[in-house]
TrEMBL record:
InterPro entries attached to this UniProt entry: Defensin_beta-like
Keywords: Antibiotic, Antimicrobial, Defensin, Disulfide bond, Secreted, Signal
Gene name for this UniProt entry: AvBD101b
GO CC annotation, single: extracellular space
Main location: secreted
Pfam families: Defensin_beta
Name the record gives this protein: Avian beta-defensin 101-2
Organism: Coturnix japonica (Japanese quail)
Similarity comment: Belongs to the beta-defensin family.
PANTHER family: BETA-DEFENSIN (PTHR20515), GALLINACIN-1-RELATED (PTHR20515:SF20)
One Gene Ontology term of the molecular function aspect: CCR6 chemokine receptor binding
Cross-referenced SUPFAM superfamilies: Defensin-like
């Protein structure tokens, strides 16, 4: 009977650890979190490339004019 309680505690610890993890990594989601937009190949004006989304997509952000 004690083993059942121990298994229940282990199950709760595992479930809590998994709850905070994202389901999957998405490069497009990562670009949006950085404030960017995905464009095909090259970034258009007034955007600047900050990385890649997936495949041939570029992650671009709007330039700030000072």
């Amino acid at each position: 009977m004690r083993i059942l309680y121990l298994l229940l505690v282990v199950l709760f610890v595992v479930v809590q650890g998994v709850a905070g993890q994202p389901k999957s990594y998405s490069p497009i989601r990562a670009c949006r979190l950085r404030g960017g937009t995905c464009f095909a190949r090259l970034c258009r004006q007034p955007y600047q490339r900050i990385g890649s989304c997936a495949g041939r997509l570029s992650c671009c952000v709007r330039r700030r004019w000072n």
